[in-house]
Amino acid sequence: MSLISEENVRGGNVFKDLSADDEEWQPTEIESLCMNCYQNGTTRLLLTKIPFFKEIIVSSFSCANCGWSNTEIQSAGRIQDHGVCYTLKVKTKQDLNREVVKADCAITRIPELDFEIPPFTQKGSLSTIEGLLDRAVAGLEQDQPDRRAAEPQVAEKLDKFIQKLKKLKEVEREFTLVIEDPSGNSFVENPLAPLKDEALTVTRFKRTVQQDQQLGIRADDDLVEEPAGNDLETMRGEVLVFPTNCPECNAPASTNMKLVQIPHFKEVIIMATNCDGCGHRTNEVKSGGATEQQGTKITLHVTDPSDMTRDVLKSETCSVLIPELEFELGMAALGGKFTTLEGLLQDIKDLTVSKNPFICGDSSTTDRVQKLKEFGEKIEKILAGEMKVHVILDDPAGNSYMQNVYAPEADPEMTVEKYTRTFEQNEELGLNDMKTENYQEGN
User: Fold this and answer.
1) What values do phi and psi take at 214, rounded to 5?
2) What's the 3-state SS for 202-262?
3) How far apart, in whole angstroms, are the C-alpha atoms of residue 164 and residue 38?
4) Sheet arrangement for strand 311-314
5) CA–CA distance, 71 with 62 (Å, rounded to integer)
6) 284-324 tens-digit pLDDT
7) What is the pLDDT of residues 149-164, one digit of tens each?
C-alpha cells in the first residue's frame, strides 16, 4: 500500500524526519523491471527531508536475479519563484571545500575553459566544488577506451582537456565556477556567513518560457500571452484569493492578495499564505509601481527599544546592512516583506543562525558555530535595546520604506538618500536592455 494516502495529502506531511524509533515509517516497495537482466527487481522509495534544507525522495533498486543495484536522490521541494545563479571566484584550495547543492536542472560552467555541463545530464547531488570537478572528470573519462579505438584524435584532445580540469584542483590560478539553476533550488556555501562573501555573487532571475517548459510548469503549447487582469479599482477594494500549495508540507492552501496604500509612500501588493494543514504562514510584498528614477538608501540609528516597532517595507531588490556587525544581506535573500524592524531582525537571525543548513552534522565546524552563535547573541541585544547600531536599507529600485514616527516632520534618527544607480545595478534590475522610447526604431 502506498504511503501517500488521501489523509496525508490533505491533512499532514508525507515527508518525515528520519528516525530509528519510528517503526511505522517504512519505505514503499514497488516491483519494477531490471534494466540489466530484464527480470523483475524491487524499487524502494522513502519520502523524507533534510533538516534546514528541503524534502527529498530516496530511491533504491536491487535485483535478486543478477545482483545489480542502483540508488538515486530526487528533490521533492517546490520550484522557487525565481531562478538563481551563483558565480564563485575560486582563489584558494580552501574554496574547493565549499559545499554545493546542485539540482539536476542546473547548468554548470567554467568560463576559463569554455566548459559547460548542460541541464538534466547529471543527477542532483550534495557535494563540494572539488566533488563537482571530480564528477565532471569521471564523466568525460567514462567512454575514453572505446573512443581511443574508434576516434583516436578526438580521444587525444579530450585527454588534454581532462588534464586541464584536473589541474584546476591545484588552484595555481584563479578560475570562475558558475551554477545557474532555473528552479532556484541549488546552493553554494558561504563560509564567512553571516558576513558578506566577496568571492561569491548570487543573482536571481526570471525564468524564460523555454525554462518553464523544461521544468514542466508550462505546457509546450501554452500561449506566452498572459490573460487580461481585472479592473484596478475593483482590485483595490477586494482581497483576491487563488489556490496554491503550502511550501512546507505541500498540502493544498490558499494565498490572499491585496493592494495597499502605505501613507507617505506608495501602493504595494501584499500576499499572504496560510496553511490549515501544518499551520505554516508566510507573507510577501511586491511593489505596485514602477522602478524609481533613483535608488534609495535609508539609514536608521537604533537608539531606543521603541524603534523595533517601526514599520518596514523591504522589497526584493533591497539589501540590508548593519555596519557595527559587519553584516550585509544581499537583495532577494529574504524576498519582499512588510513587517516591523523587530520582525526583520528576527528573520535575519533565523536565516543566518537558526535555519542555516551548515551549522549541524558533519558539515559544521567549531569556529563557524561559535561565530554564528555570537552573531545571534548580538541580534538579541539589538532587539532588547541593549546595543545601538545603524540599520541601512539600500534599494537601487527605490521601492523600500521605513516608517518615520515623526511624520510629517523630519526624523532626527533617520536619513533618506537618493542616489544615481551604477551600470551594474541597472544590469541586475534589467534596465540596461529596456527601451521605453522609440522602441520601434531599428525593427
Assistant:
1) -65, -35
2) EEEECCCHHHHHHHCCCCCCCCCCCCCCCCHHHHHCCCEEEEEECCCCCCEEEEEEEEEEC
3) 40
4) 337-340, 311-314, 401-402
5) 9
6) 777 766 778 889 999 999 998 899 999 888 888 889 999 99
7) 888 898 899 999 999 9
Q: What pLDDT does 18 receive?
A: 56
3-state secondary structure the chain: CCCCCHHHHHHCCCCECCCCCCCCCCCEEEEEECCCCCCEEEEEEEEEECCCCCEEEEEEEECCCCCCEEEEEEECCCCCCCEEEEEEEECCHHHHHCEEEECCCCEEEEHHHCEEECCCCCCCEEEEHHHHHHHHHHHHHCCHHHHHHHCHHHHHHHHHHHHHHHHHCCCCCCEEEEEEECCCCCEECCCCCCCCCCCEEEEEECCCHHHHHHHCCCCCCCCCCCCCCCCHHHHHCCCEEEEEECCCCCCEEEEEEEEEECCCCCEEEEEEEECCCCCCEEEEEEECCCCCCCEEEEEEEECCHHHHHCEEEECCCCEEEEHHHCEEECCCCCCCEEEEHHHHHHHHHHHHHHCCCCCCHHHCCHHHHHHHHHHHHHHHHHHCCCCCEEEEEEECCCCCEECCCCCCCCCCCEEEEEECCCHHHHHHHCCCCCCCCCCCCCC
What is the four-CA torsion angle of 333, 336, 338, 341, rounded to 10 degrees?
A: 20
* Phi and psi angles of residue 170, each rounded to the nearest 5 degrees, phi first: -80, -20
Q: What percent of the chain has pLDDT over 70?
A: 82
Q: Which residues of the chain have pLDDT under 70?
A: 1-25, 49-54, 73, 75, 77, 220-237, 263-266, 288-289, 355-364, 435-443
Predicted TM-score (pTM) of the model is 0.53
d(CA 109, CA 90): 13
Cα separation, 43 vs 322, in Å, equals 51
Between CA 214 and CA 102, with CA 217 as vertex, the angle to 5 degrees is 55
CA 427 from chain centre, in angstroms, equals 20
Q: Could you identify the residue written with the cell 573519462?
A: 141
Total number of residues shown for the chain: 443
Cα three-residue angle 261-328-332, rounded to 5 degrees: 45
Residue type (1 letter), 262: I
Distance between alpha carbon 211 and the CA centroid of its chain, in Å? 16
